[in-house]
UniProtKB/TrEMBL annotation:
Protein name according to UniProt: ABC transporter substrate-binding protein
Disordered: annotated segments: 1-81
Source organism of this protein record: Haloferax chudinovii
Low complexity: compositionally biased ranges: 31-46, 54-80
Basic and acidic residues bias spans: 10-23
Pfam families from the UniProt entry: SBP_bac_1
Amino acid sequence: MSRSGTGSGERSEDASNETDKQPSRRRFMQSAAAASTVGALGALAGCSGGGGENTDSGSDSNTDSGSDSNTDSGSDSSGSESITIDYLNAQAAENSSIKSHFQESLSTFEEQQGNVTVKLQTASYGDIRSKLASTVSSGNPPTMAEAGGGGLQFYLDGKVPDHSPFIEGTDRLPGDYTAANLDSAKYRGEYWSAGGMRHTNSNLGINPKLFSQVGVSDPASELSTWSGFLDAVRQIDEQTDAIAYEETGVPGDLESYWGYARTAYTGGTDPWMRQSDDPENPTIVVANDEHEDQGKTDGMIKTCVKMAHEFSSSESAQRGDEEIPSLMLTGKVASFNYAVPTANRWRAIKDDVQFGWNDGEGDFMLLPHPKVDADFGSNFGISELEGVEGEHGGHMWALEQQQTLFNASDTEQNAAWDLNMFLLGDDEFVLPAWGEHYESLPGLQPKLQKILDEYELAQSTEQAYKNADTYGEQYSTTGAAWDVRDTDPIRWTDINETISEAIAGQHSIEETPSLVRSRIQDRLAQ
């Protein structure tokens, strides 16, 4: 498919009906023999990935980099002094392909620097927090880590430096950061983070065959609202043996709810908590009888639980998103709201998976989360949502991938910052990493169009890019704007775990918003 002249969110007119191919190699590589001035391509998460803790050195490869690195780091780690960077990362543990890409790219970085050695340590996203906490408490933190939201707590505890001097010392930052990175890297106006290399976003995922079977012919239109989606799900539930809608209800994967909770709102308004004049006492919207938006937030909490009770399996409270591809590709699940850009998840189950609608014969299609329409509340029996209208939107994973420098010598911090800029800005790392090895949205906005230009992407990946671009701030990072110390436990425990308990039947739908509110209040009072 040709992408010349298209915007970052555009696709070819018939993209939803195409049969997607494996990602092509970068186009300039096809003419590498004639382009002697172009250097060789360095061969080079969400939820918990595969693989446990590991330690690697990136010093084995002799790959040259002729890329658009533009490190413009604002630091100076050059010199004859040998510098070692201990780098703890979870992304490299997501699959063997991205891990190899990291290793070979780090070798390229070492060659560029001359006096820097990078010791890569990997841990899954499920393990990295405990691994990092252990190293920090022992007094031996890494030089740089993909610390996620936990990095904010280390910053507030004085273990992480103010990143503002590094960011302000470049010509590219913060201007080139994505909106999600800008929101996530700041706490009350201060940069506690260096930004995230990549993001993922949540979207609606469907099995085209099952939706076609109940009469859907134009999913982008017919499933664009919650009422339209609900009608189709009800028909699948009545007419087929498939699970019409499966909620990924385990607390660690209820980011699905984080995404579609925004669809009752417009303009990127946060559903849960708003800043107030007192930063230590934010306004909690959940179950707040005095707040005008209470109904929207409480209504979407109830929607989450009720959808699971009426259409999901008895296992949904323990269901993780990693289980969905095999269930959907075998026709056992028709839809879910945790669809992400990573097409390789689906290819790992079925080599010739057909992405997109394909006249109702596709295997998997990604769409925006349905938007709340004025009739949905009455159609689904959620009184709080009667007459409410919202926009397409979703959760953007950006806080989870934030990278932080830790307290170290000036030379070590400067070298770590150079590494951060390499991972953010070097085309030979960035484009294959997020366009091929682990399809995601890059952490710098200008790189998004470059990936679209260089790769034939699966419909699911390209549509996820389009959703983030078309609906802008409606795809926001949950918790990034709260500016509270305990953002992560509020997200994962006070909100997600409480809703998961309701899905499991441990408390009623009606009392769930009040329980969420009470737990957030207790957390903030600690």
